[in-house]
Design brief:
Layout: E1 2-9, E2 12-18, E3 33-35, H1 38-45, E4 59-61, H2 71-74, E5 77-81, E6 84-89, H3 102-113, E7 121-129, E8 136-147, E9 151-159, E10 165-174, E11 201-202, H4 212-217, E12 220-225, E13 228-234, H5 243-253, H6 256-261, E14 274-279, E15 287-298, E16 301-310, E17 313-323
Length: about 325
């Protein structure tokens, strides 16, 4: 699905979610900004009347990346029927502590949950990573546990090839049709100071530790200050409407750096066994940044506050725990 402003009658633009077109061998162009010309004003005011109920704007702007894939293709996910999916998760998508990268698993959960609530947008994710998910095909089983006028809630189980439960998540999705399109800046304040991705510091493997996702996602350190430590990644697909999946990747990436930074002279394994994210609905651009702030560590249990930003807009907020393990 894609978000659009539909000119339904003169001087009346209405926010809608529209199905993406089938594109064959062509590419999709995601519109980040649209310039205005005299024709747009004439259409808006009914000076030109082609018939209403259309998406205006013909001077669109959006970078196009040749060879980019859809989100489902990047996640290697295929529906198998009855609310179940299969995701092929290779070793290149593993993190530092054994098993698949939690942000990728969370993104798969959101992507699969959409199939049980078509037309609704993800509002929340709560994931518990119960055990490391090994390389191979993961079975993702979705169950609708609530379907209301405004909100759907889907339970998602991620099961490894040996039939063991690896992750249990819930995903809530909201109907845009019931929402009053009000906006407010809230208390998030000005966007944090984020270094452009090209000027960021590339992540490196810790001594003696292999982290395959560093090669796969190319994370870079792009912010440090009172708001926390920022990690930016390029969004690995160029498809509108999958902003929540991208936010999951950035949210999980930013959990580790502030925990590791608390003890810079000692490598301590610090996996995060959970991730809770609330999505604002703001779209992401080509790069998304997660900012993690360490709220405290008590007897080896760390709590991290998470913000996800893109092009100056808050995309998601969340929280995660980290376990500082004895070696």
């Amino acid at each position: 699905m894609a978000e659009a402003l539909v000119l339904e009658e003169p001087r009346t633009l209405v926010h809608r979610e529209l199905a993406l077109p089938e594109i064959g061998d062509d590419g999709l162009l995601r519109v980040e900004a649209c310039l205005l010309c005299g024709t747009d004003h004439e259409l808006y005011t009914d000076a030109i009347a082609p018939g209403f109920g259309f998406v205006p704007g013909h001077e669109a702007s959006r970078p196009w990346r040749p060879g980019a894939v859809r989100a489902g293709e990047f996640l290697h996910g295929e529906p198998t029927g009855d609310g179940e999916w299969s995701f092929a998760i290779g070793r290149e998508r593993h993190g530092a502590f054994g098993g698949a990268f939690g942000g990728l698993v969370a993104a798969c959960c959101v992507h699969a949950a959409r199939s049980l609530a078509p037309g609704r947008r993800p509002e929340a994710l709560d994931a518990r990573f119960l055990r490391g998910l090994p390389a191979g095909d993961a079975r993702v089983a979705c169950t609708s546990i609530h379907e209301g006028k405004s909100l759907s809630c889907v339970s998602v189980d991620v099961i490894d090839q040996r039939g063991r439960l690896a992750t249990r998540a819930t995903v809530s999705l909201v109907s845009s049709d019931v929402l009053d399109p009000l906006d407010h800046d809230g208390a998030s304040g000005d966007p944090p100071a984020i270094t452009p991705y090209g000027d960021g510091v590339a992540w490196r493997n810790p001594p003696g530790v292999e982290v395959p996702i560093i090669t796969t996602f190319s994370p870079r350190a792009t912010a440090r200050g009172g708001r926390g430590i920022g990690t930016s990644i390029p969004v690995p697909w160029n498809e509108p409407g999958n902003d929540a999946e991208a936010a999951c990747l950035a949210a999980d990436f930013c959990v580790g750096p502030p925990v590791a930074g608390a003890f810079p002279d000692t490598w301590i394994p610090h996996p995060n066994p959970d991730l809770s994210v609330r999505f604002t609905g703001a779209p992401v651009a080509d790069v998304v940044t997660g900012i993690g702030r360490l709220e405290g560590i008590d007897a080896g249990l760390a709590s991290v506050r998470v913000e996800v930003w893109s092009v100056g807009r808050l995309v998601a907020i969340g929280v995660s725990s980290s376990l500082l393990l004895r070696t």
